[in-house]
Amino acid sequence: MKRIYVKEEWCLGCHLCEYNCAFANSGMTDMVKALRGKTIYPRIQVEQDENGVTYAVSCRHCKDPVCVKSCIAGALSKKDGVIEIDHDKCVGCQTCVLVCPYGAVVEDGSGAAQKCELCLKNSCGAPACVKGCPNGAIVYEERGEAE
Amino acid sequence: MKRYVIIGNGVAAAGCIEGIRSADAEGSITVISAENHPVYCRPLISYYLEKKTDLQRMNYRTESFYADHGVTVLYGKTAEQIDAEARQITLNTGESLPYDALCCCTGSSPFVPPMTGLDTVEKKFSFITIDDTLALEQAVTPDSRVLIIGAGLIGLKCAEGLHGRVQSITVCDLAPRVLSSILDDKCAAMMQKHLEANGISFVLGTSAKEFKGNSAVMQNGETVDFDVLVLAVGVRANTALVKNAGGEAGRGITVDVACRTSLPDVYAAGDCTEYHDISSDSVKVMALMPNAYMQGHTAGVNMAGGEAVFSNAIPMNSIGFFGLHCHTAGSQPEGCEMIEEADDTHIRRLFVKDDRLTGFMLIGHMHRTGIYTALIRNQTPLSSVDFARLRIGPQLAAMGAAYRDKVLKGAV
Questions:
Q1: Is the CB of B1 inside 8 Å of chain A's CB atoms?
Q2: Are B407 and A60 inside 8 Å of each other by CB?
Q3: Which of A4, B115, B253, B287 is paired with B150 by a 20 to 30 Å CA distance?
Q4: CATH of A62-115 among 3.40.50.280, 3.40.50.2300, 3.30.70.20, 3.40.1280.10
């Protein structure tokens, strides 16, 4: 399946992916109105290592997802390779935050958990972080074994 | 065609069903369910009282789960006996059920220590099942004074759930602190302060000596008047079925990393078991929902002839009250070093021994804590990562470029 991968040699550390992510999942049509003056809760996180190398981390859509197995509300599931969260069932216990080895499941600002769903459930239809990256440092493609 | 039987219908059973079906699409699966409910999420009962969820959304799986997985559920029945030699179980109805592979997902039962006069209390409840919860909900009114015996995970989640629906809530515990099974004194004090600020009262370090109708006389002489009593002292693993059949059990049913019991073709998973905690290198009952699922799934795969192990089990808990969250994982072995960072709003305590992170307690800041949990689970040598960065906060940057290449540039 197609997943999000990073090319850290191209990452500028500009954090635009975080803003594009928050906007894509805001349900609004105007980026300024959606984000201005607000604390954003992106599903992708830019990190920097000790050598100044930057890269973005988002859900790996693991083959054996520990978040799905650990969810106490049955809110996380894997469909066609994509790990989804049912916002309606999530009670905000944060067990998924406790178990994700990549720190890719995060709090959504309202107490519930959220994670990258590859923008398949919002109006973008394909990852907004990839589309909006000014330097092609995030890609959405097939790699590794097919599932 | 193989015949699979699962005793119990909780999350471990659901994991077992999914594990079996990942390896065998054909065999018959029969589930013995004492409760008249499809599999639901037990820890959500407090969220139900809080009205953050409802009975429909508490279902762990979709309505068609059993049909989709070719499972027959026998509701309202219990297993009375396992005959490991004849490979069959006897039900409370007298029926016997043959199996080729059996999984015991019998869970645990509330433990009520002997307390004088408990039978004089009219409204008393456990807080484990949906039925307990519905009965408790029926019993409380906005004028109720509730006394909860037990300041552990169950008792305090019950307190949070009832908050706003009753006049007052008092929680007592023999332990001198709240959440004594997962928090140390300092972390517990922070949580207690927050709970008290939200109107929960505590009587700690003492227990109810005697009940006289609607009064509890504590061992320290204090009297607490109440209208509704919740007993949340603790739970005990349901081991009897396996034990009586000659299987090994300590405080829980003994299982290995493949979730096999000592009886042939009998597996066990979930709160009824005791198993190896890699963070403390000891065997314990770790009655946790994530582990229950993982054990159940592991058992299921093995029952169906596949090969699976759950070999990195650790205790871990994510729990929050009135907006203040707490994450704990692993253990604090003797002689471990504690690395602390704390202020008025949060505490982070990391426990390190022999170049490994063995455990942590975090209150307040939860962002990306799974990175810490993975260090415990993988028993990552801390000398191989940038631990100074991890002390600032969980981040993949501390794990090195090679690890990043693996997890961010390839499928994991």
A1: no
A2: yes
A3: B253
A4: 3.30.70.20
- A98·B318 Cβ contact <8 A: yes
Q: Is residue A78 within 8 angstroms of chain B, CB to CB?
A: no
Partners of residue B410 in chain A, C-beta under 8 Å: 5, 143-144
Query: Is the CB of A94 less than 8 angstroms away from the CB of B294?
Result: no
What distance in Å separates residue A12's CA from the closest CA in chain B?
Answer: 16
pTM exceeds cut of 0.90? yes
Cβ contact, residue pair B44, A62, below 8 Å: no
pLDDT at B98: 98
Confirm if B289 and A72 have CB atoms less than 8 A apart. yes
Token pair for B372: 């810490």
CB contact under 8 A, A69 and B325: no
pLDDT-based confidence at residue B410 (cuts at 50, 70, 90): confident
Residue B287 has pLDDT above 70, yes or no: yes
State which fold the A1-58+120-147 domain adopts: Alpha-Beta Plaits (3.30.70)
B267: pLDDT strictly greater than 60: yes
What pLDDT, in 10s, does the model give residues A111-144? 899 999 999 999 898 999 999 999 999 999 998 7
- Name the segment(s) of chain A with CATH classification 3.30.70.20: 1-58+120-147, 62-115
**pLDDT tens for each residue of B316-353:** 999 999 999 999 999 999 999 999 999 999 999 999 99
- As for the ipTM of the complex, it is 0.96
Domains and CATH numbers, chain B: 3-109+236-303 (3.50.50.60), 118-233 (3.50.50.60), 323-409 (3.30.390)
What are the helix and strand counts (H, E) for chain A? 5, 8
